[in-house]
Amino acid sequence: MAPVAPPARTEGPTPLFGAYGIVKRFGDFTANDGVDLEIRAGEIHALLGENGAGKSTLMKILYGLLEPTEGVVTHRGDVVRLANPEAARALGIGMVFQHFSLCENLTVSENIALVMPKGLNGRTLKERIGAVGAAYGLQLDPDRPVWSLSAGERQRIEIIRCLLQDPKLVILDEPTSVLTPGEAELLFTVLERLRDEGRALLYISHRLDEVRRLCARATILRGGRVVGACDPRAETARSLAAMMVGVQVGEVKPPSGVPAGPERLVLSGLALPAPGLHGTTLDGVSLSVRGGEIVGIAGIAGNGQAELFDALSGEALAPEPGMVRFDRVDSGRLGITARRRNGAGFVPEERNGHGAAPTLSLSDNAILSRHATADLSRFGFLRRAAAKALARAVIDAFDVRKAGPDPAAGTLSGGNLQKYLMGREILAEPGILVVNQPTWGVDALAAAHIRQALLDLAARGAAVLVISQDLDELFEIAGRIAVLHDGTLSPAVPAAETTRETLGLLMGGATPPVAGAPDPTRAILAPENLAPEAAHAH
């Protein structure tokens, strides 16, 4: 690309970083189309857009993972070439990825050492990891292998790795998508401290209340183009969502008059030792989910959610067959293929490598998950054509944005891959569906669509179990909610009879309230028990 003079910019101080006229094409597909963006020191700037709007492509250009087809990037007004992430980091650009760029078989400190200057390793690096973790409340054992960590703990690695580089610009791609409300609050404190230190932060999130709280400016992309800018603090979450997708986002509506069906998913004293040295032991987990209902499981990352999902999907076998029952069939010793044959569906938390094989096409990924089920196996040698038809049906029904008719799963943005995986399972009409983090990284319109699809599936008689760290999501769709803490599951209680505060206490290890006893959190928050000024606010 020939040298280009810095373009004219907006009035005011010289931006710390700028992107002007950015075009990025992948064959015939244009991901960014003439994008302008200015990022100033001492601000948290939101980049908003629906899935497939071009946000991730622009971020990869700013971090040196991609070079623009056209346009320039500037640093303090001078045009720079970000040929690779090393060049970006040398200018003070750090990135916290939505999809974790971690090596599973390496430890925490070994992963961090991969991007640190030579010579910073061993004990010195571990001490710095400990110091940053203590300073920001992001404690991690530097000797633990990544494969043993929860998604929330992996997110901590990304953040610490970025902070150790003393960045001037921090790019955050859906940073709270795997965090609990308490963990997110801690992150917000960290981000505000970085802003106050004079650093710039570029914040991508579909959680619009977070954007309204943190960001003073927002640039909005749609279809790869900038369609607007605003001060998020002057907007509502609904108005921001409408700017992103171009239409008003409707509310999720639970179907009315759905009768309770028979118990379809039953866990009876499920006990499972922790996998390896690190992990969570499941301790006597009992739960039932009836046809026609959605039961939600809340909890802080790393408290057994992954182990419970594996036990439900058949990736980890229970000690006794009767500990897991699907439609009255003892299934605890059955593998995932047998459970799928019996009408169950599963969507894991980690999209790439677990939910989908990133290098395979969308249709091949459909074969991987449903090769033994009746809807594909009956086609015999025509199975591949059937899988392509299935992939097209999912793409159409869940508005999956992609480049090409049947691209590799890894080429989709995180939110679009999530839509595909959810659609792949829901369109199979499973009698039992187990989902871990159903709307991780998807935009407001897609989240509403997925949640409505789950409600509609339950209304058709399915038993749906949703594991989610998003309490708002669980209150929106679940009839009953339980909390998983340190491998122990609390009783599932009607969502209408509990509160976020009560669930938060259980997530922190409080003892579940006795049935029929007053809710202690409601008593604590009662006006007569608060200071006068707090009671007035309450």
Automatic annotation (TrEMBL):
MF term (GO), any: ATP binding
Pfam families for the chain: ABC_tran (PF00005)
Gene3D superfamilies in UniProt: P-loop containing nucleotide triphosphate hydrolases
Protein known as: Simple sugar transport system ATP-binding protein
Family per similarity comment: Belongs to the ABC transporter superfamily.
Keyword list, A-Z: ATP-binding, Nucleotide-binding, Sugar transport, Transport
InterPro entries: AAA+_ATPase, ABC_carbohydrate_import_ATPase, ABC_transporter-like_ATP-bd, ABC_transporter-like_CS, P-loop_NTPase
Domain of life: Bacteria
Lineage: Bacteria, Pseudomonadati, Pseudomonadota, Alphaproteobacteria, Hyphomicrobiales
Coiled coil: none
